[in-house]
Amino acid sequence: MSTYLEISSAGAYASIQDLGRFGYRRIGVPWSGVLSPRLMRIANRLAGNDDLHPVIECFDGGQQLRAGETPVRVAVAGDASLEISSEDGPRQVAAWRSFVLQQGETLRISRIAPGRIAVVALAGLDLPRMLGSASTYARAALGGDRGRALAAGDRLPAAACTGGAERTLTSPPDPERTPIRLVAGPQHQHFIDEAWTTLLGAEYRISAAADRMGIRLEGPALTHAPQFGHEIISDATVPGAIQVPGNGQPIVLLADAQTAGGYPKIATVISADLPRLAALRPGETVRFAAVSAAEGERLARLAESHTRALLDAVRDIPGTGIDIAALYSNNLVGGAISALAEEYRPLATSFTG
Amino acid sequence: MALSILDAGDTAFTIEFGNAIDPALQAEVDVLDHAIEHACARGELHGVIETVPTFRSLTVIYNPVETDRETLLARVMPLAQAATHARTNPARHWLLPACYEGDAAPDLADTAKALGASPERVVELHATTEYVVYMLGFLPGFPFMGDLPEALRLPRRTEPRVRVPPGSIAIAAGLTAIYPWESPGGWHLLGRCPVPLFDPSRAQPALLRAGDRVRFTAISSAECARLDRALAAGELDPDTWCQAEAQTA
């Protein structure tokens, strides 16, 4: 019997990602990769994978994932509301932990909030690497399942579930609502002085055009200095770069964005805060604050030590390691798991910002 | 010459050599790129993720958990000042097939009108010019090539297309390019090249590389369709259209 997880519904959007595809920006290949490496690492740690194993990155909920002919272990990182439907009816499960889906059971991500991204790790997910990565980059048919985003009917090969304790992260990271920090960009002098003040003082709205390529912001226009105009000789872009086309509305580039561009870049969002920006939903607002590149580096190191502390805090759930497959198949622990759910994620739904 | 260091956040900086599209600047970028590649190979630039050469600048991307900008600049700037050795990659010469007729050339008539020339003259000028590949970017395998003859220079389309078909040969702003993938795009589409420019299964996924020389040879729609079939069936290797490798200074 083959072990797999079938995509019954890809929801709003779901794709296979890992840390990304590095070393090919010089030939026009963006990194792709998860928008939140922290969520990927936690989900993998929970599922018992290597931290950098490919995962399913889910946007905005609606995803339904069904275990095939044999049980599979999955884990979800992110503030998601989850439900497992089986022959016995639906049961709630908590995010930030692993669990086993019995054959035929479907995990549904009903809601993701706050934020719009949840990461599902599948124990032993087995996909080929292309140019060193399994990350999906659909425009060039790279990575993922046949080079495209996940779709209903896709089957992801996994490792047979051999029992072992479930894992949980009892104190997940708190959502932060502080301003997104940025560093003055390579062409910040291509704008009038007031543009910088505006960018740091005004509130910008996440428009409907927000995906893995980038986020178009809506707010007060950032005016180009007349002597520079609103185009440059194309140069390299990096994720986090804020480019400003002629209409003055900023665009933040993300993982799948083009590797070079001809619009002036007024600022670059620091790497520590980019996942937080990428997780904002259309209609939400954002404010920015300026830091130096050196301060950005310090914050990157701080974020990394925070991630490592979170990974170190992943624990086995007591009482779940005893021939769990047999317990599940006898329907002995389903109720116990849902009873534990609130205990393990008491704040999951109470945070409203 | 004076170099500028541009900030690109907490994971990158850009070393800019000038503010023009100029083969001499591109060559300087290339030299520094190779110097950094060698320094990385010697283990001297721990924490560098990759470098991205463009028309007139080189962007160095690094992991701020493993290194920092100050450390890297102290090692990279002497390389930029001292790097004088010749490019290590020989320039390759390509003669790529180009179909300038029918559906393959949706903007040819309008472009000719805008330039005040006949479509035949536009095709002749485009196909008889040798271009240098300045850089790859925007999309996987997408070559920015130049320079266009003066008679073919015009700004981008005022209304970018939502969908540029893959293989489209396009011109704008003094440059010509080939779209390897379907994409939105604002350039004028003069023709189609059936040769795939990107194949991840090859050791060098991008067919072209910075510094290569490219010319086009006009082919009919029927010949283009024949090449499409032969390439798809694996009967033709894209390297077929590489004519020679020549050492350049």
Description:
The complex is a heterodimer of chains A (353) and B (249). Chain A has helices spanning 37-47, 193-201, 274-278, 293-312, 324-329, 334-344, and strands at 4-10, 13-17, 55-59, 63-67, 72-77, 80-86, 89-93, 97-101, 106-112, 117-122, 155-157, 167-169, 180-184, 204-210, 214-218, 235-236, 241-243, 251-253, 260-261, 265-269, 285-286, 288-290, 314-316. In chain A, helix 1 (37-47) packs parallel to helix 4 (293-312). With 353 residues, chain A is α+β, with helices and mostly antiparallel strands. Helices cover 18% and strands 29% of the residues of chain A. Mean pLDDT of chain A is 91; it is low at 332-353. Chain A starts with a strand and ends in a 9-residue tail after the last helix. Chain A has 2 domains: 4-170 and 317-344, no CATH class; 180-305, Cyclophilin-like (Cyclophilin). The model of chain B has no long low-confidence stretch (mean pLDDT 93). The radius of gyration of chain B is 20 Å and the shape is globular. Chain B has helices spanning 23-41, 69-82, 108-115, 119-128, 221-232; strands spanning 4-7, 12-16, 48-53, 57-62, 91-99, 131-136, 143-146, 161-164, 168-172, 175-178, 183-185, 188-192, 213-219, 242-246. Chain B folds into 2 domains: 4-82, Gyrase A, domain 2 (2-Layer Sandwich), CATH 3.30.1360; 91-246, Cyclophilin (Beta Barrel), CATH 2.40.100. Chain B contains 5 helices and 14 strands. Chain B is α+β, with helices and mostly antiparallel strands. An 8-stranded mixed beta sheet of chain B has the order 12-9-10-7-6-13-5-14. In chain B, strands 1-2-4-3 form a 4-stranded antiparallel beta sheet, covered by helices on one side. The longest helix of chain B is centred in the first third of the chain and has 19 residues, at 23-41. In chain B, helix 3 (108-115) crosses helix 4.
